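Morning. Coffee machine broken again, so started the prediction first thing and wrote up yesterday's gels while waiting. Chain of 283 residues, entered below exactly as on the submission form.
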Amino acid sequence: MVTWLDGYDSMLPTPSTSHVDFDRVYEPAEDSFLLLDTLSSTTEIAFLKERFTLGSGHAKPDASIPSPLIVEVGTGSGVVLAFITAHAQTLFGRTDIVSLGVDINQHACRASVHTVEKACRDIANNSRDASRPVDAGLLLTSVNGDLTSAIRPGSVDVLIFNPPYVPTSDVPTACAAIGSNEDMQSCLDADSDILSLSFAGGLNGMEVTNRLLEQLPSALNPDRGIAYILLCKQNKPEQVAQRIRLWGAEWTVDIVGQSGKQAGWEKLQILRICRGSQSSFDN
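Came back before lunch.
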């Protein structure tokens, strides 16, 4: 599968996940591919280059701008993190980005590392032509952790979150507290329990997302941090936007991607949250 870029005479391949055990790891679906399409859209590429380089007209990043740290929370198969890391030059206008994955599922952590490393190798192999620069950034690792608890406050430049957004009667709370690897494994013995972590969102599908939103102001870089968060209609994105506005006038929320049915909870939206100019929710 490929993601086409408007305004480019090339296409960005979607990373392979053929090695992933989908009995234990969330399989890429419409929500995953919406994130890929959104992040590789002309408007978001321009936004990311402007924020993390010096504008789309500059060929090289300013050395005074630190390497961006890109964190995906809830990596699943790693397809989104791999896409971003492998296509760093195209998406950010620089190859010195550093990526990090976080997932509560150990199987997903291992799968993500494999997916990112394979995608970057594929990019390198396809870039041996001297006329094409190597595109990929650097993967640090994928951390077995709960949301942003394992991340240093104020360090994240771009946070991406495809949460468990399906409304359910409850969420798998037994595994919320990370203990030893043995404790986690015993907690997640059943494959169904493991997979439920990837979709069960509790009340309004928002219980896990609400926890992430509470952590977001401290997790993001205070000067340039942004977040892309995927929601469905039943998550009540307008209420999410209003909640974020209460953080202060400098915070903005924009709808930068959407797909799915026009009626019903399956309609998906991606919110970009950052400090910046007028939000599309205010129009």
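Confidence is low (pLDDT under 50) at residues 1-10, 176-180, 277-283. Going to sketch it on the whiteboard this afternoon.
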